Amino acid sequence: QQQVKQSPQSLIVQKGGISIINCAYENTAFDYFPWYQQFPGKGPALLIAIRPDVSEKKEGRFTISFNKSAKQFSLHIMDSQPGDSATYFCAAVFGNEKLTFGTGTRLTIIP
Amino acid sequence: DTGVSQDPRHKITKRGQNVTFRCDPISEHNRLYWYRQTLGQGPEFLTYFQNEAQLEKSRLLSDRFSAERPKGSFSTLEIQRTEQGDSAMYLCASSPTTGGGTEAFFGQGTRLTVV
After folding, report:
1. What is the pLDDT of residue B104?
2. What is the pLDDT of residue A56?
């Protein structure tokens, strides 16, 4: 049972553009929503995270927007750079325990 | 390097053989997690430990899989009688108790290929 749905599966953005990745969840008990970045041959690395009592969180060029009523959240990467090319996973956590991941978005930034 | 360490990085084995992977977490982290990631998918939870106690196991963890963390430090994941469907990346993560899964730090994984 997939509890976190992620789209798109792949995304191509021009350098300097905005990359947007969307996720939706089903379980309203989830109380923490992190985003992970994964490069080929590496493990996922925590990028940014948000709790449902906040509608937006920004860290540098990365912003999470959260819509609790719609059970949706998204990652925005501003001024996208070639070094941002990676696979991005949204995730959800209940009670400080295991991560439930989305299926991932392969992001490619082109010059 | 004080990150999560996994060994080996790659393992090729014949169907039916047993394999064992090792994970060394960040030293002050109480929690240790095992995930499995297949190509084009997100990591899927297998099991986790709080110190030496195994607190939860996923239904993905069939009876051919066993995980241990005997002294609350490193952990091993053993797969008996491997099948081709076991081919995947096996990821280990650790976190401090207060952060739980929200502040999990991942190792680079062990890529298993069953031929």
Report:
1. 87
2. 97
CA distance A79 to chain B (A): 26
Q: Smallest CA–CA separation between B19 and chain A, in Å?
A: 20
Residues in chain B: 115
Measure the CA–CA gap between A43 and A88, rounded to whole angstroms. Answer: 12
pLDDT tens-digit profile of B37-88?
A: 998 899 999 999 999 999 999 988 899 999 999 988 999 999 999 999 999 9
What span, in angstroms and rounded, lies between the C-alpha atoms of A34 and A41?
Answer: 21
Q: Cis check for the bond before B8: say yes or no (omega within 30 of 0).
A: yes
Which of A4, A6, A98 comes nearest B101 by C-beta?
A: A98
* Token reading at A32: 């923490």
CB of B16 within 8 Å of a chain A CB? The answer is no
Give every CB contact of residue B102 below 8 A, 6+ residues apart in sequence.
Answer: A32, A34, A49, A93, A96, B95
Strand partners, A32: A93
Cα torsion B25, B102, A101, B81: sign: positive
